[in-house]
Write a structure and sequence with these properties.
Blueprint: E1 5-11, H1 16-27, E2 33-40, H2 47-53, E3 57-60, H3 68-81, E4 86-89, H4 98-103, E5 108-112, H5 127-136, E6 140-147, E7 157-164, H6 171-201
Parallel strand pairs: 1-2, 1-4, 2-3, 4-5
Antiparallel strand pairs: 5-6, 6-7
Helix pairs in contact: 1-6, 5-6
């Protein structure tokens, strides 16, 4: 039987990227991986409902009510219980420490809503990225999926996809197009790519 990497998805909000991953899994687009756990840094995140709708176990840890050490300890304990091989940060707004990411080096995927190295680094997240792209007047933006903790402000870039900036775009319309045309396409592809690498090693 094909060995599958056990995947945990970290979320903080609505979970649209999580939804894209779960639908891709159900289509059979991640044959070397399986999402078995969703971890939220916000107990009210709608992403938890999405996980339940797809029959995936989920856990919430209130980042606001815990120290960084306690937060990461709780995450680590849950990851160990589920024998997780791979973490995907999908709209996860909590910062993870260098100690945490070092323990998972080469096994944490993150999606960033720009073409790294453009519009990345401290302060560039969510709508701020798209606001900056529009202020700069770029004609093309996109998304990047990268491995965390291999180079500053990112990691090994696995996949990138360009998205056209249209006249009249607002940060919200641009954000939606980048999600639909890039993030939701790249995340499942990267999940499968890394899952295949990890299962090949074992």
């Amino acid at each position: 039987m094909l060995k599958r990497a056990r995947i945990a998805v970290f979320v903080s909000g609505g979970g649209t990227n999580l939804e894209a991953l779960l639908q891709a899994q159900e289509r059979g687009d991640i044959p070397h991986g399986q999402i078995v756990l969703v971890c939220a840094s916000n107990p009210n995140a709608y992403a938890l409902t999405r996980a339940a709708n797809h029959g995936v176990d989920a856990a919430a840890f209130s980042k606001k009510q815990m120290s960084q050490a306690d937060f990461e300890s709780a995450l680590t304990e849950k990851l160990e219980v589920y024998h997780i091989d791979l973490i995907i940060l999908a709209g996860f707004l909590s910062i993870l420490s260098a100690e945490f990411t070092a323990r998972w080096e080469g096994r944490i995927l993150n999606v960033h809503p720009s073409l790294i190295p453009a519009f990345c680094g401290k302060g560039f997240y969510g709508l701020k990225v798209h606001e900056a792209a529009l202020e700069r007047g770029v004609k093309v933006t996109g998304a990047t999926v990268h491995l965390v903790n291999e180079i500053p402000d990112g990691g090994r870039i696995l996949l990138q996809k360009a998205v056209e900036v249209l006249p009249g775009d607002t940060p919200k319309t641009l954000q939606r197009r980048v999600m639909e045309q890039a993030e939701w396409v790249l995340l499942p592809q990267a999940a499968e790519l890394l899952s295949a690498e990890l299962t090949k090693e074992n």
